[in-house]
Input
Amino acid sequence: MKIRKRDKGSKVVLGITLIFLSVLIAVPAMGGPAKELSLLIVSHFVPPFETEVEAQAQQWMKERPDVKVTIDWVGTEEQAATLLAEAESGSGHDIVNLESFDSALFRRSLLPLDDVAEELAAENGGWTQAKREIGYVDGRWVAVPWFIHTFVAVYRTDYFQQIGVDREMGSRATWDDMLVWAEKLAAIDHPIGIPVGSNNDSDCSVGPLLWSFGGATVNREGEVTIDSPETVAALEYSKKLFQYMPKAVFGWTAGGDNNVFMLSGYGSWTMNPPSIYASALKSVPDVAKYLDHVRTPAGPDGRFRSGSVWSLGVWNYSPNPELAREFIKFLMRKDNWYAQLVASAGYNQPVLKDYQAHPIWRDRKSLNQYEPMQETLHMMGWKYGPSAAGKKTFNLHIVPIMFAKATTDGVQAAIEWAETELKTLWKEELRK
Output
């Protein structure tokens, strides 16, 4: 097996020439396997997961010695550029790792996988919350959900104890509670912090805040609804909360700034999957023993969570569609998926109901409010469902930028800017 890994933070725009070069490099030598299956997978925030997937690919090749598997691991920004280039050129990898509504964005270039999705669901109790709306587009399965990671509240138990807040109180928290606690934590120089800017982590952090106040970018008909009293309430609240966060949060990236914030011992609370916890277990155990996860805070309209559903799709130009289907089913097989889960230290969340039975989240107290989810899960672009416009809303980070603009330009100006941006996207969506 050939493994190619690129720097997670790299920003590479791949042209057709480079794609063809990648394919040519991977061609097996004379006398080797007759077929090659190539995969583009996004680098995982818990690296042992990658090692496990590579080992499983090696095992599959032992069972299928006529096939050579090539895996390219790429960062999220490179993944987006590569998907676009490959879809437009009609050349590249066979299997591609898709994030959330990538399935809708590239639906015309993806092979239907109804047989794979329906077989997996029938054998494993069906799909869990919100997974059908990720892979099922225009009446067919264009991608098979693989795993999900979501943004839950990550906090330091010792710092919260100093202000009189225990785990039970934290798990029942409302945003009003957080405002009181944020002021107290800032006073002891251990502030809370969430990213608020042009990155995926920001979308997954402020999206649930917007929804919990009743705001949404669009309705079920695709009409832009961002200019609403509920959005105003969410933004007015955020201005109060953000004053207790470090000003640096407006410049944080998805490259790990909130991880450093927590691992350094400075931060007391953020929103993130358990990669911070996994890193602490490995590198700073004195921090890990104080880290815990609880539900996201509730607002007047409920308690929400967001994140990324990672799916596997097959380009409709792939010369090996049946091999691709076979390998996807192999990766999704329960014993293999469980091994991937353990390697991820509980970071991966299940997409098939029967897989929720794994004990890892129950056995580790710090993970038992991460999975199973007790909040309502949505992706950016809710309430409409799978759409290219929803994916572009996420990619362009319209919602977190709106939150940032509210603190500098005022609430109404921020809403007007977001409404203009969203109407452009949804006009294009509904015209299709």
About this structure: The first strand starts at residue 2 and ends at 5.
